[in-house]
Amino acid sequence: MINIAVIGPGAVGSTIAFDLKYLNSNIQLLGRRAETLQFYTNGDTKTAYTLDVAPLHVHHQPVDVLFIAVKIPQLDSVLSEYSHLLHSETIIILAQNGQGQLSKFDHPHVYQGVVYISGQKKGNIVTHYRDHKIILERNLHTQKLSKLVADSALNIELTEDINKAIWYKLLVNLAINSVTALSRSTASVLEVPGMKTLCRQLLLEGIAIAKAEHILFDHKIVDDILEIYEGYPSNMGTSMYYDILANKPLEIEGIQGYLFSIARKHQLETPILDSIYALLLAQQPIIDK
Ligand code: NAP
User: Fold this and answer.
1) What residue ranges do the domains of the chain occupy?
2) E-strand spans in the chain?
3) What is the average per-residue pLDDT within 270-274?
4) Which of 2, 19, 101, 206 has the fewest Cβ atoms surrounding its Cβ within 10 A?
5) What keywords does the record list, in alphabetical order (predicted)?
């Protein structure tokens, strides 16, 4: 029997664990502490399921597949205490937004997932709203994983061009997360005069940074992303908006900070990104991760 663990019993990790619960596998959901979660799925807020979480630091046997679904600022603490879960062939899926974190791993089979799972955790209540998809690069390991989960609700989609999928999500996150976090407003901030222009300029800089890394997007993508933003309900918050309101560390390092470092690498001029990045850094709370 396959052993699977999911570290990070939040919106994404709990959904992955719940989706895989009925497979013929041994699955553990691991967090900072033992707790029992109330879990709602697919936007159905009437039917509650329970999910048990075991503490990561207590000893567990090595697993064959490990999903890591913590926020970017929480990754270092996971990496300092997860080695007991690994054997040489363990496949690790980093189910996170952003880019640039894989270099922190000292393990051969780690793959960045592009996560399309939407949900929220409040206390011990996790509400999954919609989507069950993780996009991964196509290789022998991920093909094996995709077959393994084929009978579950988790949709592992394999692509030949993972970098494009990662950068597309990075761009979608870039503008809306920045403006909602900095203004401490929901998507309603898009109605402020000049805000859509600011998003457009930021996205154009993002596309230029992608191009320097040989990730090519048509400029039409800016209109497509702005159209996605316009489809958001005005009372919808983004994860960076919720994190800033809760005074939690922001995922800047893997989104705006990552793009900033790549822009510097290629000596690109990115005045909008530079300003946004500095302003976000200034908001970053100095608190325990
Ligand atoms: P989340 O709800 O905040 O969940 C993170 C979980 O990890 C929390 O339960 C947290 O515990 C736990 N954790 C933190 N440090 C840990 C540690 N050292 N050991 C074990 N567990 C630890 O975050 P999320 O929304 O699932 O997001 C995970 C990633 O997916 C992020 O990169 C996010 O941007 C991305 N994403 C999220 C969504 C979404 O809709 N939520 C959509 C797409 C992508 P505590 O509860 O104790 O803090």
Assistant:
1) 3-160, 163-288
2) 2-7, 25-31, 35-40, 49-55, 65-68, 91-95, 110-122, 125-137, 155-159
3) 98
4) 2
5) NADP, Oxidoreductase, Pantothenate biosynthesis
- Residue 33 is predicted with a pLDDT of 96
Residue nearest to atom 41 of ligand 1 (CA): 119
Tell how far the Cα of 96 is from the centroid of ligand 1, in angstroms: 8
Q: What is the DSSP letter of 247?
A: T
Closest CA to 56 of 35, 87, 25: 35
Q: How much is the pLDDT for 260?
A: 98
**Ligand 1 centroid, distance to 8 Cα (angstroms):** 5
Q: Are 219 and 226 in contact (CB under 8 A)?
A: no
pTM above 0.90, yes or no: yes
Q: Name the 3-class secondary structure at 90.
A: coil
pLDDT at 285: 66
CB of 54 closer than 6 angstroms to any ligand 1 atom: no
Q: Tell which atom from ligand 1 comes closest to the C-alpha of 118.
A: 40
Q: Which top CATH class is 163-288? A: mainly alpha
Q: How far is the CA of 15 from the centre of ligand 1 (A)?
A: 11
| Tally: H helices and E strands in the chain | 9, 9
Q: Is 149's pLDDT higher than 60?
A: yes
Residue nearest to atom 38 of ligand 1 (CA): 118
Q: Output the CATH code of domain 3-160.
A: 3.40.50.720
